[in-house]
Amino acid sequence: MGSNKGVRNLFIFGSLFFFVILIVLTFDTLSKLPGRAPEITEDVNAGKMAWHKYDCIGCHTIFGNGSYFAPDLTKTTDKKPEAYLKRFLIDPKSVNPKASMPKLGIMPEEADQIIVFLKWIAKVDTNDWPPKPILAGAAGVGGRELTAGERLYQSSGCSECHMINGIGGTTAPDLTHIGNTRDKAWLFGHFKNPPAYTPDSAMPAVEASDGEIEQLTEYMLTLK
Ligand code: HEC
Ligand code: HEC
Fold first, then answer.
1. Residues whose CB falls within 8 Å of the CB of residue 147, separated by 6 or more in sequence, listed in order
2. For ligand 1, which residues put their CB under 6 angstroms from it?
């Protein structure tokens, strides 16, 4: 009988012990939750309605949920200027003639609401998910020191839109062989003022000193 009592005590106190841990962890989680999602406004809601109306999730993911045909949009508004996104939503091919996202008939007002919705999504604390792409391979061969131009390319977020050697975004022209098609003067001038070289360009001007833009240009010229 004595050993039965021991088993019973172990069961009772063991259960109690883990129950207390459960309660403590529950409170810990609850105390952290309010900070993780920002407030939902009317525009956020309207954007979400438009998101469903055009079945964005049929191609895209948010928080990793959805279809894997198109890029995840969880942090898109952190990386791309609003004006660029608005243009892309209304008419993807006006940004990039090769865009495969269809023109869905999104009205300018709806585009604004969708962007507000995506900004809300971007503010949700996801513990740094999705991970940033690994860029080392895009600029240079592993092991060697990056040139100033390569470093600028990586720190300026060019790869959010452009691809080099298969790494980067798909909404702007592939730059893998850009050194074959554009010369120094064109590249330098385009960086400072894209629409002066590509009418209606959706690329934001590069904000850097002339010296840095020259380094970026030198890097582009090596891509052949
Ligand atoms: C038929 C598939 C499809 C649908 C539907 C679709 N997209 Fe896209 N979207 C794409 C593809 C593919 C891309 C990648 C760029 C390209 O090639 O056009 C893209 C790119 C984007 C981008 C640019 C992402 C970036 O990183 O620059 C945004 C923003 C975007 N889509 C938002 C939306 C929203 C919002 C909706 C719904 C209103 C939507 N998409 C519906 C296929 C789709
Ligand atoms: C928000 C998206 C975006 C970002 C960020 C961006 N670009 Fe662009 N870029 C574009 C688009 C769209 C075009 C096509 C229109 C044009 O030629 O201006 C383009 C065009 C170019 C071209 C000309 C391509 C060709 O074949 O004619 C070069 C070179 C270029 N970008 C380099 C860069 C570099 C370097 C950076 C980083 C400093 C950068 N871009 C940042 C969107 C972007």
1. 140, 215, 218, 219
2. 51, 54-56, 58-60, 69-71, 73, 76, 80, 85, 88-89, 92, 99-102, 104, 106, 114, 169-171
